[in-house]
Amino acid sequence: MPTSQNTQIVLNERPKKGPITDITFKSKSVDLAEPKDGEVVLRVDYASVDPTMRGWIDEARSYLPPVQVGAVMRASGLGTVIASKAEGFKVGDLVIGLLNWQEYYVGPTENLRIVKTPEGGRDIDHLGLFGMTGMTAYVGLFEIGQLKDGDHVVISAAAGAVGLTATQIAIAHPNCKVTAIAGSKEKLDYLKRLGAHNVLNYKDADFKEQFQKVGLIDVYFDNVGGKILDMALAQLRPYARIIACGSISQYNATKPDPIYNYANVISMKATIRGFIVMDHAKSFTEGAAYLADLVKKGKMKAHYHVVEGLDSCVQALREMFEGNNLGKTVVKVSREASKDCKL
């Protein structure tokens, strides 16, 4: 193996309410272990940065147990096999799984998957468009939101990883009107070029008035929670569907925003449903084929916000909550990735 050390980013202490701080995480170096029977060593090429990570480091009950203090930060990643004692895995294979924020993964293969990048494709799409990001948008709109021809679809955080994919799916769906919400002129211009019918900046002083003018909503893809969710509840069409995907405006909040318009869910006979994409794995093959077809037709573009170096992971997570990313955020961990990973 090329090195005897493995740098990791571990949870140093649980954050109190509010944003993570300089002491939430710390970096440490450990000896790089040799693989045991049934194990592999992966060079981590790219590590994912996602809003849900903020919830993983709290002690609150959730769909996954919290990351323990002292443990390597949980994260999806894309890596290359550099040593193997596991059947079916050979040196050079490209692998996706929970590789965490570290330079190398050493461990079993039960939750790892070898991936093949099609001709003309990009390896990084396994973390984005054809990974959990794309599947979340696909499952959210079709299985949770029951998207129909002619729906008015409103998407918050529309320039984020999931939001950008969901926006393009809705634009491509027959006769749908799409209202995309983001927080900068750059993002709104990009969403407009993609074909969104209405683009709204939630930072504008008259955002509430702009939002009211877009009309009644059939499907609301909620990535932010809080005040924008409450505004959407006030404009539901009968039998509207609210896709509860994320709540990024609330993850760092010291005090949650109140919801005043909940009664509209009842009077408009609406459905609001949360989901965890991993529960819908049976739909991933179909979803990947659907998204690949949109790419082929020129109706889907994957956009990545790439930062370099393992030590950039924490800052990338911070900046995500400040709205600094356009598209899916990934950290290029390995210098070797530029040789092997098509970006």
UniProtKB/TrEMBL annotation:
Which Gene Ontology MF annotations are present? oxidoreductase activity, acting on the CH-CH group of donors, NAD or NADP as acceptor
Kindly give the Pfam families that the UniProt entry links to this protein.
ADH_N_2 (PF16884), ADH_zinc_N (PF00107)
Name-wise, this protein is Uncharacterized protein
Q: Which organism is it from?
A: Cryptococcus depauperatus CBS 7841
